[in-house]
Specification:
The structure holds two protein chains of two kinds. Chain A contains eight helices and no strands. By secondary structure, chain A is an all-alpha fold. Chain A folds into three domains: 82 residues, NADH-ubiquinone/plastoquinone oxidoreductase chain 6, subunit NuoJ (Four Helix Bundle (Hemerythrin (Met), subunit A), Up-down Bundle), CATH 1.20.120; 32 residues, no CATH class; 37 residues. The longest helix of chain A has 33 residues. The radius of gyration of chain A is 24 Å and the shape is extended. The termini of chain A are far apart. The C terminus of chain A is likely disordered. Chain B is globular. The mean pLDDT of chain B is 82. Chain B is an all-alpha fold. In chain B, helix 6 packs parallel to helix 13. Helix content of chain B is 64%, strand content 3%. Chain B has one domain. In chain B, the strands form two sheets. In chain B, strands 1-2 form a two-stranded antiparallel sheet. In chain B, strands 3-4 form a two-stranded antiparallel ribbon. Classes of the chains: A mainly alpha, B mainly alpha. At the A-B interface, helix 2 and helix 3 of A face helix 4, helix 5 and helix 6 of B.
């Protein structure tokens, strides 16, 4: 069942991507990108990464693309006219995807070919053993979920949280500050234009 | 995964979608009767088949009062002429109603309707999809519904629907932020994103807003009640805004925009918007009940005395859950017919200046209360003082901002 779903949603994501660049209408393009995101999210979910899949929909399809559609509609963009490509842009457009394709081929070639059996099933017992609490420590939520007698589950949300906040706490804070700086920058830039507007009116 | 689970899932899909759709149609009936009571009218209280137009002597009256009114409404919508104006963008015009109804019904999939039922030695959860990321799933899918309304406005290719679509787009994005931030204290409390486990927690520790039984009685728990109540207020109000219900129904505000985003729609396509709105309301009520009022739990410590797993206990719990949901639907209707509509700039101010900040402060307050036993007393006091100072200044800034801003109503 799962492999079929992987192909179906993979096709959906690819079809969305192709439609995005072939449609001339900006709104249609934006919506095909949403389709692509939903397909991608479904791919994550087939890989047991529920949290990443849902966040993919929540952030990209549900927030960022809504803003795109909103702006496109407000500006009332018309259908894109066919433009003649400049030769430099054309060459760059050919070389970059080629490099990417070669990289992907390289990754697939160098991957774990032959021992696919290793990846067939997630060994929850082994994982539970790895996350087992040390002496005089309370069992973590990750361990509880992995060693649940009734229905052991992969606690993907807890694992992501554990990795981000234990291993990459400092980079996370830096990223937070970067985003804050960007937000404040936007506020400052948009504030400056206000007095000019009133002058124009006067 | 064996056959029992597959069959059970199929049955669950049928039954729960059926329950939701029945609820949606009964909501319409509730809405009409309740508004009639508020306005001192009678409302639709009878329904019959007019046999007299076929030549019979007497009309046939159905004996269950107005309960069959939704049936007649549905029949009317199907039989009406489905008119598509010539100037619309046809594909998107047809796609929009689907995008409104689909997400609203999909979100129902993760709501736990009752306690798990034991069939053939296996506990089958009474939610269609027993996901680990329940509330996030609902937010993610519900946020896709905005495309339906926005596309309806845009594809109609006429002015008023377009305004309605743009308004709805801005409104839903703004309130999604408050919605997402407001439940962080709740999730800190539960320490899980699994809706079934959230309900189980409330069975053991008392409902989130009524922690009076079980293992819920401690000073810290009662202190936590403050941020949790703030979260409840913000969450409920944001749900109102997300479902485009009064007092936030500016996308379809009749006095300004004729019918808003669905002005150009007729017949069953219009009915689908209607259906989507009510389905979103049902899911919203179900989510409020699940997060704050114990989901399917009966409360008063009764649940753990019952043999969980027996089929009648599951059915009883489903009944209790539906009763609570009905209560909240009635609350939604009561608010609609008593509170006047907001102005658009008031709506935006409320979302961005009041709720956004309040939800953020609330997160820190909840975290501080939860962390207090684990950190030094001095640090806790310092934290509270800093939080109080920040809150004071934020309120001051917000007050000056709400009086000064001239956020243009779109």
């Amino acid at each position: 069942m799962q492999p079929i779903l992987v192909y179906v949603f993979g096709l959906l994501a690819a079809a969305g991507g192709i439609m995005l660049i072939t449609f001339r209408n900006p709104v249609a393009s934006a919506l095909s990108m949403v389709l692509s995101f939903v397909g991608l999210a479904a791919l994550f979910i087939t890989l047991n990464a529920y949290f990443v899949g849902i966040v993919q929909i929540l952030v990209y399809a549900g927030a960022i693309m809504v803003l795109f559609v909103f702006i496109i509609m407000l500006l009332d963009l018309n259908d894109e006219k066919k433009v003649k490509f400049r030769s430099t842009a054309l060459i760059a457009g050919i070389i970059l995807p080629l490099m990417l394709t070669m990289q992907i081929i390289g990754v697939i070639q160098g991957g774990h070919r032959g021992d696919d059996a290793k990846f067939e099933k997630i060994d929850l017992e082994k994982a539970a053993h790895f996350h087992a609490p040390k002496e005089d420590q309370e069992p973590t939520a990750i361990y509880k979920s992995l060693s649940n007698e009734k229905s052991p589950k992969l606690p993907d949300t807890n694992l992501i949280g554990h990795t981000i906040f234990e291993k990459f706490n400092f980079p996370l804070q830096i990223v937070g500050v970067l985003l804050l700086v960007a937000t404040i920058g936007v506020v400052v830039l948009s504030k400056k234009s206000e007095p000019r507007k009133t002058e124009d009116k006067a | 995964m064996d056959l029992t689970i597959h069959v059970a899932t199929l049955i669950k899909i049928g039954v729960f979608i059926g329950i939701t759709m029945t609820f949606v149609s009964i909501c319409v009936m509730f809405e009409r009767r309740f508004s009639a009571i508020i306005q001192d009218r009678v409302g639709p209280n009878r329904l019959g088949i007019p046999l007299s137009i076929l030549g019979f002597k007497k009309d046939f009256k159905l004996p269950i009062g107005g309960l069959t009114q939704p049936l007649a409404d549905g029949l009317k919508f199907i039989l009406k002429e489905d008119f598509t104006p010539a100037y619309v963008r046809t594909f998107f015009f047809w796609l929009a109603p689907v995008l409104v109804v689909g997400p609203a019904l999909l979100t129902m999939a993760v709501i736990p309707f009752g306690s798990p039922m034991e069939i053939g030695g296996k506990f089958i959860p009474m939610a269609i999809a027993d996901l680990n990321v329940g509330p996030l799933f609902i937010f993610a899918i519900a946020s896709l519904a905005v495309y339906g309304i926005t596309l309806a406005g845009w594809s109609s290719n006429s002015k008023y629907p377009f305004f309605g679509g743009v308004r709805s787009c801005a409104q839903m994005i703004s309130y999604e932020i408050a919605l997402g931030l407001s439940i962080i204290p709740v999730l800190l409390m539960f320490q899980t994103l699994h809706l079934g486990e959230i309900v189980q927690y409330q069975v053991d520790h008392g409902w989130l807003l009524l922690p009076f039984w079980g293992e819920g009685l401690s000073a810290q728990r009662f202190l936590m009640w403050i941020p949790l109540f703030i979260a409840f207020v913000i969450f409920t109000t944001s749900i109102f805004a997300e479902t485009n219900r009064m007092p936030f129904d500016l996308p379809e505000c009749e006095t300004e925009l004729v019918g808003g985003y669905h002005t150009e729609y007729s017949s069953m396509k219009f009915a689908l918007f209607f259906l989507g709105e009510y389905a979103a309301m049902v899911v919203g009520s179900a989510l409020i009940v699940t997060l704050f009022f114990g989901g399917w739990s009966i409360g008063f410590g009764i649940d753990n005395a019952l043999p969980i797993g027996a089929w009648w206990v599951s059915l009883l719990h489903i009944g209790v859950f539906l009763g609570k949901v009905t209560f909240f639907i009635l609350f939604f209707i009561l608010v609609r017919w008593t509170v006047p509509r907001f102005r658009y700039d008031q709506l935006m101010n409320l979302g961005w200046i009041v709720f956004f900040e309040a939800a953020l402060i609330n997160v820190f307050l909840a975290a501080l209360i939860l962390a207090a036993p684990h950190i030094h007393g001095l640090a806790t006091t310092f934290g509270f003082i800093v939080l109080a100072v920040i809150t004071f200044f934020l309120i001051k800034i917000a007050k000056s901002a709400t009086t000064k801003t001239t956020v243009k109503a779109i």
